[in-house]
Amino acid sequence: MNSVWLQENKWKDVENYLQKRKTIIIPVGSVEQHAKHLPLGTDSFVAIKLAEDVAKETGTLVAPPLWLGWAPHHMAFPGTITLRPETLTSLLYDVAKSLIYHGFEKLVIINGHREANLPPLKTAVTKLRNETGAFLTIVDPFYIGSEIGKKIKKSEPGGVGHAAEMETSHMLHIHPDLCDMDQAVKNVAENHRYFSHDPFVSGDTVFSPSDVHEYRSKTNHVGVVGDPTVSNKENGKIYHEALVHNISDLVHHCEENIQVELRNKEIPL
């Protein structure tokens, strides 16, 4: 391979790769407001960098990134682009089905957009798994990095949410040039314990969707949920390296231990 990125290789390179390997990584993110201190593309930048570093660690190809996700509540702030959930499901479905047609058997989707992207992504991979027999798995940093996140977390309960501590530390490590910490502000609201958005706080929770018409005021007219002010690049490096280690371990397991028999290899039409 000339590059870990599928789009930077020739078709013959991919044909040769498939003689030895059957796994490919697909980064999925979002372009949405991330308060005043982080760029709109934060979720995509995170997914792309994780995919690239895991690929270099494991010798795995990476598909072109899917930059856009499902983010209707973030439309409260300018610059956000949202897909309909059906569109995101169809987009991942068509990309994955094309790859499966060529003989990729194991697809690791790295989701940089946390909970919001998960329903449409889960729908796509469930359809594909049952239609084609391919193995698909979705990796979300908040979940595959849960243990390290709890260990390095500095903020109070509720401090990890959107454009908050963990995302900001991560971005300070991978794209410090795109961050402006002078603009970082804290917004930790007092909610009923069932409505905790912080994944590192234990307790019983429920899901309640955000309303775009209230989102601006509920995020302090800035777009932040949590506390980015305690973030630092040192923790971002620790967090990123732990994620790369865990995802690489998963990729090795998929390539070496997951047995797949493809069926219904069809072109998306």
Structural notes for this entry:
- With 269 residues, the protein is an alpha/beta fold.
- It has a single domain, classed as Rossmann fold, CATH 3.40.50.
- 43% of the residues lie in helices and 7% in strands.
- It is built from nine helices and four strands.
- It has helices at 11-18, 42-58, 85-102, 114-132, 141-144, 146-152, 165-174, 212-218, 233-257, and strands spanning 23-28, 61-62, 106-111, 135-139.
- Strands 2-1-3-4 form a four-stranded parallel β-sheet, with helices on both faces.
- Helix 2 (42-58) links the parallel strand 1 (23-28) and strand 2 (61-62).
- It is globular, with a radius of gyration of 19 Å.
- The two termini are 29 Å apart.
- 47% of the residues are buried.
Number of domains: 1
* Widest beta sheet: strand line-up: 2-1-3-4
Which structural class do the helices and strands define?
alpha/beta
> How confident is the prediction overall: mean pLDDT?
96
**CATH class identity:** Alpha Beta
Q: What gyration radius follows from the Cα positions, in whole Å? A: 19 Å
- State the assembly state of the protein chains: single chain
CATH H level: which superfamily?
Creatininase
Question: Count of helices?
Answer: 9
CATH architecture, by name, is 3-Layer(aba) Sandwich
Q: What overall geometry do the principal axes of the alpha carbons give? A: globular
Helix/strand order: HEHEHEHEHHHHH
Please report which band the strand proportion falls in: under 5%, 5-15%, 15-25%, 25-35%, 35-45% or over 45%. 5-15%
| Total number of beta strands | 4
Tell me the distance between the termini. Answer: 29 Å
| Uncertain residue segments | none
Helix content: 40-55%
Largest sheet: 4 strands, parallel
CATH topology type: Rossmann fold
